[in-house]
Structure formats: C-alpha cells, structure tokens
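User: Here's a structure from my thesis project, written as structure tokens. My advisor, Dr. K., wants to see whether a designed sequence matches the one we expressed. Can you design one independently, without my sequence as a hint?
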C-alpha cells in the first residue's frame, strides 16, 4: 500500500485529509510538529509527504531540507509567489494553497506518485487504486493482493509506466519478449482479458481499455471509452 505522511498541526485539517486519503486506499501516518515529523520519518519512510509550513518545534521550511528522496507537497496558507518559488527551489515537488479542494489534492498526489515511479525514486507504480511494486514484483488493489502470471504482470507494468498513452501491440510484445516469450500477438488479447478480470475481481475499476486495431491504454475510472 502507498503510504502518505500528513505533517500538519491543525487537527481538523489533518483528520479531514486522513479521511479522504484512507477512502482512496492510501495508508496514512501523521505528525503534528516538525520535531515529531523528524522522529516519525526516522522510523518510517512514506511514499509522499504533505507538509504544512507553520509547525511548532521545527517549521516546514526547516524540515524540508532534511527530507531526501521523497516527494513533498507543501500545503500552506501562504500565497506569496516568492514563498512558493523559494520552497520549490528548496526541494518541494509541488505547492498547494489552503483552503484547497480535496479533488485537486488527490490529483496532485497522483501526479507526484507517478513522476516518482517513472523517475526511479519510487519502486511503486500507482493508478486508480492499483499498486504495482517493481521491487517486490507484487500487485495490490487496496489491501488485496492480486496474483498475476509473469505475462500479465509485464503487461500491467508497461501500461502503468505509460498511463493514458496508447501502447501498441507490437511495442508490448517487443518490451515483454525477454520475460514472457510465450506471449504472441494472437494470445495477447487473452492475457489482457485475464488481467482485467483479476483486477476487477480484486475491486479495481475497469482501467484497461482496448484501442481497436492499435493496442491498449490505462484510463481513469469513470472516463468515457474512446
């Protein structure tokens, strides 16, 4: 499960964000001061951090340089452009101004998790509640593990590395040939069909779309098919 650290001394906001993230299938760890956050991050390494600036003990600005290799989205009431520029230059991945819409927060989180996965700073690929851990070679939907064949895993990994993009059949066959030489153009459709079925049975939305005559792509839940 993807874990997000919420570092904010405002209990109301922390509770609200935690509820939203938990509902979306994320794991959440929390800290209410900069000093507590330092101790928390020494024990656990989250996949992403939501960081408030006005923290007791150690401010968000002081805490940010101590965080390495984890994307940080600063969530603050400060709206000055220079503040945002300074924090982004200091290592923040993104900046969200309070008050915020939770849909925008979730979208920004999803973007940073995908960027982290594609850049190699995170072994996890995440899309619509489906998590693929490239280090452990596991796939989960929320808390549920999904058992895939080598071919199904290779197809899903390639699609998750290229979300929303149409991946052609020839490219899929070329990229997965070393790991899964049994997959041919005639059997590819069957492998994808089995993959979609397993993900749906685990509780995931139908996120794999066949693009007629070309290949396949990942789509967002609720998105109309092209």
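Assistant: Designed independently from the structure alone:
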């Amino acid at each position: 499960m993807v874990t997000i650290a919420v570092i904010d001394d405002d209990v109301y906001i922390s509770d609200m964000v935690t509820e939203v993230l938990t509902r979306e299938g994320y794991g959440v760890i929390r800290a209410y001061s900069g000093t507590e956050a330092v101790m928390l991050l020494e024990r656990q390494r989250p996949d992403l951090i939501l960081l408030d600036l006005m923290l007791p003990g150690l401010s968000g600005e002081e805490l940010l340089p101590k965080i390495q290799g984890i994307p940080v989205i600063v969530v603050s009431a400060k709206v000055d452009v220079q503040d945002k520029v300074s924090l982004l230059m200091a290592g923040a991945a993104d900046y969200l101004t309070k008050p915020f819409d939770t849909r925008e927060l979730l979208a920004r989180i999803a973007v940073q998790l995908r960027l982290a996965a594609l850049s190699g700073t995170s072994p996890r690929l995440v899309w619509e509640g489906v998590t693929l851990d490239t280090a452990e070679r596991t796939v989960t939907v929320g808390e549920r593990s999904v058992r895939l064949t080598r071919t199904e895993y290779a197809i899903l990994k390639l699609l998750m590395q290229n979300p929303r993009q149409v991946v052609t059949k020839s490219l899929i066959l070329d990229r997965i040939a070393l790991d899964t030489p049994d997959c041919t153009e005639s059997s590819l459709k069957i492998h994808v069909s089995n993959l979609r079925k397993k993900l749906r049975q685990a509780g995931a939305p139908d996120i794999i779309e066949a693009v007629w005559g070309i290949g396949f792509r990942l789509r967002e839940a609720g998105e109309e098919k092209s």
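When you compare it with your expressed construct, this may help: The chain is about 40% helix and 20% strand.
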